[in-house]
Predict the structure.
Amino acid sequence: MTIHQSGLARDVPFDTAKLDRLMEEAGIDVLLATSKHNTQYLLGGYRFIFFSAMDAIGHSRYLPVVAYEKGRPEHSIFIGNRMEGGEHENHPFWTPSVQAATWTSHEAARLAVEHVRKLGLHNARIGFEPAFLPVDAYRIIVDGLPDATMVGATGMMERMRAVKTLGELKKLRHASEMITDSMQATVAAAREGSTKTEIIERLRQEETKRGLQFEYCLLTLGSSHNRAASDQAWKPGEVLSIDSGGNHQGYIGDLCRMGILGEPDAELEDLLGHVDAVQQAAFAKVKAGARGGDLIEAGQSALKSSPVAGYTDFFAHGMGLITHEAPFLMTNHPVTYDGVDAERPLEAGMVISVETTMLHPKRGFIKLEDTLAITETGYEMYGDRGRGWNRGGTA
């Protein structure tokens, strides 16, 4: 959709008809998005670099606000930090109104209240994100709009983001491929005596030089199941599990691969083979129109009949701008939410992470985590390289 203001045409970067429908279903008249991921989504991918890593400043915090009135995108506004005026000058935001005027959360909330009042929507149903609206801002909104009704909008926005555009899928593919390449380079560079801390730092450097923003690395060596950084050193014959998340323009790559210092013996080949068999069983149920819970049941069924079932776990979750988002396929496993999408059909453009984790009592932490983009006929796997045993010390 394109809106016009002062002779300028600006494309709205999301499906306004879909958002309007979801808002109607949720009973929301005006959306006040305040999380960094949802404001980024509504602004077409923009995130202010100054507050990318930390929100706190002075006595308060950065609080971006995108206000959207159902059916009236021409009434939208972006409320941001004072320094974002320069961003708007160089690359204008699509919203007809922009107020780059805040340093605190309460300033942002006051401007949001003023905007809703100007629209004459004093008694509107206001959609907000409870987990991403600080209490001072919430109180200002409630006090400033006493006749309005506050309605949780988190679930509605999760539905909005669930199906990715081609542009979003491209970013997710790139993030996954760069993480996989970074992992393979890191394992190849690690050698006998390399510590977990050193290996994690090498991965950070590898991801950074490939243009990713490093998020985390969970690493194990040998028989240990501890994935935190330490001075533990890699020894010949030991396995390495490397699980990392990094993002490309806000979109998450999240995969896990295995390494070995030396050559894997027959037992290790079998163990990783069992993990992959569970993954493949789940993959076989992935396609648009399939019931979301089918892939979960297939993975669980394959694991139940596996000789490693006693110390292995299977899990799958949606991903995109954040690491756990719609579709939600399992309940409280391990992140606390309900598997509300288990009975719903998968849709082309959804992206899921499928992971099988073995905590072997002697051989250590053995895991594969893969990223699948759902298509009409099946799926595309992003970052599908290095799913076997990657050799350390070869670089």
Q: What stands out?
A: The first strand starts at residue 2 and ends at 5. DSSP finds ten helices and 18 strands in the chain. Residues 2-9 have pLDDT under 50 and may be disordered. The radius of gyration is 23 Å.
